[in-house]
Amino acid sequence: MLVYDDVPEEVLFSGAHQLQAGDRIKFVPASQGSCDGYSSPDFGGTVGPGKDGWGKTVVTVRLFAFESPYALCTMEKTKGEKSFRFHGHVLMNVNFAPSPPPMPPAAPPPFGVLQLLPHFGMPSVPEMSTMFEGTFRVLGTIAMAMGGCLALYVCCACMCVYRHMDPFRFQRLEEKPPPATPAPPTAADPEVALAA
Question: Looking at the 3D structure of the chain, how many domains does it have?
Fold first, then answer.
């Protein structure tokens, strides 16, 4: 039998020499050759059903690797025994739990099309920001000035249209009277008389 160090394990008993529910067992270091001591519940207990009802002859133990191997001691109360009997041929080995598997390697970075383009040693972002800081400031000032001029022009154009002025010449439009329509010709007109 094999269990892991300092891990509670349920041990199911079966075989030709069958234990019954109510019997008691414990494991002691095989090197001591007797069933003295080791009365803690970690080393054994009363035989009964396992957790969740599995098995009828189960005992939970928690053994330690530094005293391995352990030998079985039984007290078959169902047969009237009053003390433990040492069974040096039934051994329980305790090993340290295996170490967890190593972490998988990190995934490679995603492939991008930009990796195909040649790299000409462009400066990093902090270098670029200090290099072009003055240029960006001047361009920002020019853009703000142009925006202000455009806004002023739009305001003036709207006012001129509102006041009936030509927005491009800033002059008041003269209201011209509509062109006179000629009167129909009469017989007294000299041109009409000649034509007749």
Answer: 2
Is pTM beyond 0.85? Reply is no
**132 in the same domain as 56:** no
Token pair of 56, please? 């009828």
Cis peptide preceding 100, ω within 30 of 0: no
- Provide the residue range defining the domain that includes 56: 2-95
pLDDT in tens, 10-58: 888 777 778 888 889 899 999 988 999 888 888 888 888 777 667 778 8
The answer as to whether 12 is a domain residue is: yes
Residue 90 sits in the same domain as residue 151: no
Give Cβ neighbours of residue 160 (< 8 Å, ≥ 6 apart): 166, 167, 170
Residues in the chain with pLDDT values less than 70 = 52-53, 109-132, 134, 136, 158-196
Which spans in 55-180 are helix H? 125-131, 133-162
